Structure prediction request, 194 residues.
Amino acid sequence: MDARQALVDCARRAYAEGLFSGTSGNLSVRTDRGMLITPTSVRYETLSPEDIVHLRPDGAVLEGRFAPSSEWRMHAEIYARFPAVGAIVHTHSPHATAFAAANRSIPESLIEMRFFLGGEVPCAAYAPAGTREVGLRCCEVLSGRGGCLMANHGALAVGRDLGEALLRAEYIEDSAKITLLSMQLGGPVPLPSE
Ligand code: 13P
Prediction:
């Protein structure tokens, strides 16, 4: 399938699942020349393949009628640091973002976290939105992980492709929701090592 259409389908699905509010969040896939990324501040209901922006890693627009996501620098930093990453899904999904607002990591207490996310979901240190530092802070905690939280901001999932990145974004939100519920029952128990 065309990569632009795949990005739109993925964005709409994530929006329908409640992983974004308003125009928050952004998604990208790596290309030979840089990345295809969602445009800034466009509502997901109206997003079409022609709205997707083809960007070079330095931010130069190769093709696109809209400005790219304001977080393109974060995406570029992650692609530069992790060659195996082929897609990135950044959400403001509510339960995961509650942990990010509290600057707390999601502790590893569920089997899916180990299989799909590489263990706990660490919280990257705060950096102002739209800066290269957002990406640098995420890179500090992403090694061996399927994603991370971004302090006072949201959540981020990476994958070899868009399908894997979306699945991880879904599991990050699910893990956060279940962890918050288990906190009302005395707190989650760490997942045993074997
Ligand atoms: P964009 O609309 O520019 O992608 O920004 C949304 C967002 O979530 C910023 O972190």
Summary: The pocket of 1,3-dihydroxyacetonephosphate is lined by residues 23-26, 40-41, 69-71, 92, 129 (CB under 6 Å). The chain has a mean pLDDT of 97.
